[in-house]
Specification:
The chain has 12 helices and 12 strands. It is of the alpha/beta class and about 325 residues long. The protein has 2 domains: about 110 residues, NAD(P)-binding Rossmann-like Domain (Rossmann fold), CATH 3.40.50; about 190 residues, NAD(P)-binding Rossmann-like Domain (Rossmann fold, 3-Layer(aba) Sandwich). The strands form 2 sheets. Strands 8-7-6-9-10-11-12 form a 7-stranded parallel beta sheet, sandwiched between helices. Helix 1 links the parallel strand 1 and strand 2. The radius of gyration is 22 Å and the shape is elongated. It starts with a strand and ends in a 10-residue tail after the last helix. The model has no long low-confidence stretch (mean pLDDT about 95).
Amino acid sequence: MDKPLILITEPIACEPSLWLNEYCDAQTIGIGDEGFDDLLSGTQGLVVRTYTKVDGAMLDRAPNLKVVGRAGVGLDNIDLDACADRGVRVVHTPRANAMAVVEYTISMLLNTLRPINAMSEHLDTDHWHAAREAAITPGSVVGTSLGIVGMGHIGSRVARAGLGLGMEVSFNDLREIEPKDTLGASCKSFEKLLGQSRCVSVHVDGRAENRGVIGQHEFGLMRADVILVNASRGFVVDPDAAVCFAKANPDARLVFDVHDPEPIDLGSELMGLGNVILTPHIAAATKQAKLAMSWVVRDVWAVLNGREPEFPAN
């Protein structure tokens, strides 16, 4: 009996790929590669990551498709309604990269609040004591206010980490969070959170209402020394407003791991600003997280066998 054809459009970890190949004819091929369209017409499954857009036009070219596996959390690149209309199941890995993003967020906050410089040469007694004196930071993580926008899988873990470090943590979320799930963090309005927090960490989903949710008005509410970290969606922050704020507030620090578009525009004014840190969508870039996300293939295989997946998205 012929194995079902599965197309992997962006590389996944080796072990899950080999596992899938035991049961399927799994082929790694980019959507722009020669032969992709021919294979797409016969494929029963797609495994995608961040940059493959699964929309109605693609689905129309895949009449045999039964399941789309998103090796990751966000589903912004997948038209769930179009999939549902065609009877295509969508599965993903909603918790696989959560702790990797938490590590990124906390490390960026630590690098700003408590920068540490290593010795590069031997120091005599005088320079030893001078170096120790110079290393005293004006602030500390302990007691610093951290405001979390979005208290979901990732935001709640950032809250737990912040509380563990002795930070004063508050949050804002569209949902009403049960007291038992606040972890000791306080709920604030969006405006108060932005205005009162030294650190603001954004962890919202890809719904259309979140586009530009941090713009000129919101930057105007923030402290002049705010540390803003966005590792959620690039379109959440208005880049023009961010440029104006960064230029006007040299003591602020803006950290953006996600961008709109990606790659970031070559002419973006954010690129040359000393108080802006840009990284190329790497918050989840740990070997463990990539492996966990790649195991979405288990749910892909489950759907093809008529079983209910563990993490359905539609």
